[in-house]
Amino acid sequence: MLTAHRGIPSKAPENTLSGIRLAAQLGARWVELDTQLSKDRIPVIMHDESLDRTTNGTGLLREKTLDQLRMLDTGEWYKADYSGELFPILEEALEECKRLNLTLNLELKLYPGSDPEALAERVIELIQETEFPLDKLLLSSFSGDALIRCRELMPDVRRGFISDRTDFSLNQTLNEIEPYSIHLDHRILTPEIARDIKGTGVVLAIWTLNEPEKAEYFFNMGVDNIITDMIDQF
After folding, report:
1. What is the annotated signal peptide range for this record (predicted)?
2. Per-residue pLDDT at 104
3. Integer Rg of the chain from CA
4. What local confidence, expressed as pLDDT, does residue 65 receive?
């Protein structure tokens, strides 16, 4: 299985509605997006802590209200053709994924100063309000606290623990988070680590692999899902 990372950033601005649509057009069945809270606690779609890279604004996302974010352009930085791309809120992304029949891997993105429980609570509220189908949803995060709160509020939602390290406690992760999946940086995955994770019955995903010629190697290792910026190249 393949997941379109932030949409398809090799062809469209990341974490945008246009990127979601294009990924679906190019055959994606899974899409990964990042969510954070605005200053007024509205879940929005964006990866970075700062607005500087992927919008025409500056400063920290969490210091801006939704009204301020909606004034920004999230496409022009990428290509003139995408000028006027509106800053997306999570509700819009959920509706678009439903319309396109995409399975969503939604990463709860946290930075120093962010409140993991508040983000989890607002995301769960929105999932309930929009009646997003749980069989089309995976909530993932580097934050164990965020995932534990998701489990408390919505036990049936699938949870994915993300790590760029191999020294985390697998048993503790299984006991506290009860993950559906574990997502590792592909550069740190070894056959031994893959065996240990797969031996628990948990789904194994890797990120972010942009070399199609290596896909077979990782699938043979036991990887179930490859997250990539280049969904159209695999």
Report:
1. none
2. 99
3. 17
4. 99
Q: Which residues of the chain have pLDDT under 70?
A: none
Nearest Cα to Cα of residue 193 among 158, 234, 164, 226? 164
Helix (H) or strand (E) holding 34: strand 30-37
Confirm if 222 and 204 have CB atoms less than 8 A apart: yes
Angle between helices 144-153 and 116-130 (to 10 degrees): 40
Q: What is the pLDDT of residue 171?
A: 97
Is residue 30 within 8 Å of residue 103, measured between CB atoms?
yes
Q: DSSP H helical segments within the chain, as ranges?
A: 17-25, 66-70, 90-100, 116-130, 144-153, 170-177, 191-198, 215-221
- The pTM for the full model equals 0.98
Q: How far is CA 214 from the centre of its chain?
A: 22
Torsion of the alpha carbons at 178, 46, 41 and 101, rounded to the nearest 10: -60
* C-beta of residue 13 within 8 angstroms of C-beta of residue 5: no
Residue bearing tokens 């006991």: 175
- Could you give all domains of the chain from N- to C-terminal order, each with its CATH number? 2-44+88-233 (3.20.20.190)
Residue 70: the pLDDT is 98
From residue 180, alpha-carbon distances to 104, 212, 234 in Å are 14, 25, 24
Interacting residues of 97 by C-beta distance below 8 A, sequence separation 6+ = 20, 31, 103, 104, 132, 136
Burial class of residue 40 (count of CB atoms within 10 Å of its CB; 0-12, 13-18, 19+)? exposed
pLDDT for residue 204: 99
